[in-house]
Amino acid sequence: MRLLVVHTAEGARTAQSLGDFFARTDVEASSHVGIDANSVEQYVPYDRASWTVLSANPISENVELCGFAHWSREQWLSTGMVDGCANPRAMLDRLAGWLAERVQARGIEIKKLSPHQVAAGDWGICGHVDWTVGTGDGTHTDPGPAFPWDYVITRANQLAHGNKEDDVSWNDQLPNPNYRKDTPGTGQPTYAAGDWLVYNNVKTDQVSAKLDALTEKVNAPAPVQITPEQLAAALGPMLPAIATAVADELHQRTAA
Ligand SMILES: [Zn+2]
Predict the structure, then answer these.
(1) Could you give the CA distance from residue 215 to residue 225 in angstroms, rounded to a whole number?
(2) Do 138 and 24 fall within a single domain?
């Protein structure tokens, strides 16, 4: 088992209806799980092969999204109704959670594979299309050319490493000395809130949650020389810079 393969169901609007479809005796197809905005449904136990990617079946775990390969990036990231499918972005968040869980269970890295890497036998995450193009086996091209891998991989990483914030000290999260500035006269390290957010690759739409967590840390008895007021004042003008830095970083990662 070396691949987590992402598919689109191309019709089913809910994970439950997809499960009903797979359960039909005339349907020679299955997947380990199906995901919609509200649930992750398991159809096939992980110790058995599912029937989704031809010769990759014995080496893959497969997840079907209740979406369509023709969707644009905007549609994938929409929180509205798209082609009868509710909140695709919430579905992607559930997918990221599933990936974060399964990489741990299987000892796989959170890494999106290219078709070449899939064919070369690398371990990681891919779309059905990457198998098709890499190996020449089959014709399916899901989950589609506009599928937002950058969003999904970033979210999976955040979820996989989410505990870090709770059990690693504030200072340990800032190993890069560029982000450290000693407070004059005290020898105590301080950090600019914006730098912290950039360093931790915080997406702008999650800034408020992070800000809550930061405020909690600031209020806790810890050697951090910054008040919630200073933090809020520092954050406002920095948001555009944070957004740019994160976008550049994501662009570099997906281009790599
Ligand atoms: Zn597929």
Answers:
(1) 12
(2) yes
Asked whether residue 154 falls in the same domain as residue 167, the answer is no
Which residues span the domain enclosing 212? 163-255
Task: Tell me how far the alpha carbon of residue 62 lies from the centroid of ligand 1, in angstroms.
Answer: 9
> Which letter does DSSP use for residue 183 in this model?
P
Nearest to 93 by CA among 46, 153, 34: 153
- Kindly give the distance from the C-alpha atom of residue 142 to the centroid of ligand 1, in angstroms, as a whole number: 5
The reported pLDDT for the residue numbered 204 is: 45
Distance 22 CA to ligand 1 centre (A): 14
Q: How would you classify the pairing of strands 81-82 and 85-86?
A: antiparallel
Range 144-155 burial, b when 16+ CB lie within 10 A, else e: beebbbbbbbbb
Prediction pTM value: 0.64
pLDDT tens digits, 222-241: 455 667 777 777 777 777 77
List of the chain residues with pLDDT < 50: 163-183, 191-193, 195-205, 222
- Predicted pLDDT of residue 233: 78
Distance 144 CA to ligand 1 centre (A): 10
Ligand 1 centroid from CA 140, angstroms: 6
Provide the CATH number for the domain around residue 129. 3.40.80.10
Number of folded domains that form the chain: 2
Q: What is the pLDDT of residue 214?
A: 65
- Both 153 and 134 in one domain: the answer is yes
